[in-house]
Amino acid sequence: MTEAKKIKAGSGALNVDASKKAQKTAKIVRLVITYLFLAVMAVIIIFPFYWMIISSLKTIEEYRENVPTLWPRNIVFENFRTAFEKANLIDLFLHTLYVGVVSTVLSLIVTVLSAFAFARLNFKGKGLVFGLLMATMMVPGELYTITNYLTVSGSLPFLSEPISALDITNTFAVLIVPMLVSVYYIYLLRQTFMQIPNELYLAAKVDGTSDFKYLWKVMLPLSVSTVITITILKMMGAWNSYIWPRLVANDDAHKLITNGLRGASFATENGDTNYPAQMAAVFIVSIPLFLVFVFLRKYIMKGVSRSGIKG
Amino acid sequence: MDSKKSNKKAWLYLAPAIILLAIFSFYPLLNTFRMAFLNGYNGMEVVGGEKFTIGIQNFKTVVGNVDFKQYLKNTILLCVITVPISTTLALLIAVALNSIKAVQKVFQTVFFLPYVTNSIAIGMVFNAMFTQVRVGSLVQTYGIINNIIGVFGIEPINFVNSGSTWGANMFVVCFYIVWHALPFKILVLLGGLQNVNKQYYDAAKIDGTSKTRTFFKITVPLVSPMLAYVIITSFIGGFKEYSSIVGIFGETMGPAGSSGQMNTIVGYVYNMLPKSNLGNASAASLILFAIILVVTAINGYVSKKKVHY
Amino acid sequence: MKKIIAFVLSVVMLGMCAALSGCKTAGDGKVTVVFYHTMGANLKAVLEKYIAEFNKIYPDIVIDQQSIGGYDDVRDQVITEIQAGKQPALTYCYPDHVATYLRSRKVIDLNTYINDPEVGLTAEQIADFIPGYYKEGTQFGDESKMYTLPFSKSTEVMYYNKTFFEQNGLQVPDHWFPNGENDVTSLDYVIKKIKEIEPTSVPLGYDSEANWFITLTEQLKTPYTVATENVDDRFVFVNDDNMAFCDKIREWYNAKLMTTQAIYKAYTSGLFTNTSPNEDGVVIHSYISIGSSAGATYQCPSALDDGSYPFEVGIAQIPQADANNQKVISQGPSVCMLKQKDQAVNDAAWLFLKFLLTSSEFQAEFSMTSGYVPVLRSAFELPAYKEFLSDAGYTKDGIAALSAQICMEQENNYFTSPAFVGSSDARDQVGELLVAYITAEGVSREALKQLFVDAYNRCVSLNK
After folding, report:
1. Has residue C395 been placed in a domain?
2. Are β-strands B133-135 and C414-415 bridged in parallel, bridged antiparallel, or unpaired?
């Protein structure tokens, strides 16, 4: 028998006061435990970030010390200067921003159109196509990389020689086009679209509103938070992508931020890594993402959490 | 509107996505099948003008690799261990977050942080925290984590250094994966909880149902669609685990002296690429693909039975 | 409806535009030679300087030099690019990389250029290369084919704490294992002695486990690898002789006489120059450190506040097993040429390669900047390089020169192991094997033997 039932079983006016008191105490205890639990988890979550930050403020000598110091003895900002100098960060930022913005805009267009088709239009083979798309989420991406690399180099199947006119490596296009479609975003937006009552759509149909107009005027405004979520996720993707850019656009004119950072730029001639400078660079690169998250948390919360709701 | 026209229109809307997917997803997928079933298919030899016979030799080679069982075991265990732990923890945190008012926003922000990080970079930070600095066989310093657990009287553990056991490595990797997986799950589950109609809880309160009972009988069923969603996505992600391990151990995928000890199937695929051994890489990818398909199907079947919509 | 079509079209167009705008313009009669390497900023500056020199002679050849991360990154990039038919004309390489590239038949036999009466190398130019280095290019199964030219070289040397050795009357060891008792010039004797003098020390640090294993097989003439057709027969390192020297190292490890990079988790130079105390307030030192000759400056302690150094560093050839069969490993990048669609690019690439590798000035300057040693004898004769060498000393200022001198002196002892597809796996596996072997705790003879067998199985498995 549970506590609450016991209390309920005990009747009489005198007991009511006592039980209220007990309830109150239980509530406080529960609250304390809740906060304690959250606090412990929060510390665990935050610790690696703390470690990254203090490492970026240490001298390389202090970083290499055998007993790690919990707080840098001398705070140095030298590492940040090294990071900026060695990695040509300004250019890298600009490239990444360009790729991020263009690919986000194009990606949104493609995503909105497909999500609308899946959410509102009826057509033959809808289930099959949707299933097929979902299935691609399960395929390890590595599997695509090599073939895609051949494709963007102008090497087509059944041709012995690559066509150099189709070679788009070392352009911004190659960083954008192959990544435009994300099945996950389509799925996310479809879920949001499906929550918009069908009656609205039917009413619009009766009014003679075109599908496109309806999509633009009604559905998109109602799905703003998901659209923002996708925008943020896509930008983050551009910010964090590594394997593909390294392969297809490794020249200085198109290098993206992670590639610039991971290049040998922080290795001394001996091959040893300057960890504090690297940590500083990782920190610098993370700042825009942190800021985006702190200020736009609301939208990400809404968008991502909605993805879990089955339509 | 007749259905033909509607069909046409729908396809138009889908055209950009379908065309791009056809070029950059479906074609590579087909190409993978082709490469997997050409015996000893090797990118270098293709260029050299070599011809290959059709067969299943690549699959035999992959399965016959002395370490393949280990990779398979790691891949599966990483999923089986981390998915339940991270899901349970995320649910507890989400419920706790949902039940408080003060500083809720602050906690939320903190729990989001791992979401915005590069898994390789932070993996390196985790490595630094677990590493013992050793000189020969003398331990110079145990690393910050060992220092912390030392406070509770636990003997220092060799987590990631040479000579560390598979179990200890597994613990670190799982710890990191759970850490990294939490934000997304908390986000989704919290979103679900906030959408739950308060009336259910009020009803439970009136009935005097205990908190534990409320949790299992009301909360869990009500967020079960989100639970199903996070479980399926994290299983899929878990089977493709690679970069977390690279972050912690580097591309050797294990501590010095036992590299490859923590390697996974995706890691094996990457090992094959520098040898341009595309046949084996493709075969291994397809094996992984098959496993994911089966698990997703089981997941889907179970959630159809258990999830309350 | 029309709107939608227009919209969809515009999306496609946008993509196309972006794609087309990226297409590179060709023509204008210039030839571009792409050169991949791993140089950092300092070395790139040196390279740029000589590219400018080169362009004075050949203004129509553009050298597009790109730094691609580390050696493995270069390899990965080149392999992928070969498959897409767009490999660079020139690239840094290690022998096992070339073994992989060879399968594509895209590696150019440099003899076709070297022996060319017009653009080839003269007999003097060939003779100017240090023979051991030059020979490496022919070790790919067919001796008549030359696939690589040496670019710059390093080797392993032994650094020792000269001050400590002099204070304690220790001899610099020149062989590993003792011949009878009190063999004062054996490493075994010296590290035990150091441990006696300072029990908290870890006398020896060795950076590369793989090098240690391979070098010992070479010095002891025990089997390691053979470049044969059959995969099962290539990896012959499983034998009692090799187990015997692993046992010896295991003894040293268990007696806390040594550590390695993998065990220490950092370059062991850190231990050699260590000045900071551990949790118990003890400063743990090593007194001998075996590492790359190119890392000499890292083996020197930083100057103290008064400008003096905590100790002086001596350099010597690494210990040997057999005085009549002295061997040290040869490392450092070589360069190979990959076939291009346009023959003119190949020819231009050769001209550049020849310019760079027969220029003793470039070799000298590159070496002084990097810590690597020149591959040309004439570079050592240049006034600038001689001056550099004359500054050789036992502290940070002169250590690189001292290291270069030692490398020059052991010029006849260099070896490389055979390169074939899978030779890098053998290298990785024996390095792993040595660490696993010496750190394994409380295991039986059979279990130790099994480590060898496992390493062999992995090598075979990875190359089927």
Report:
1. no
2. unpaired
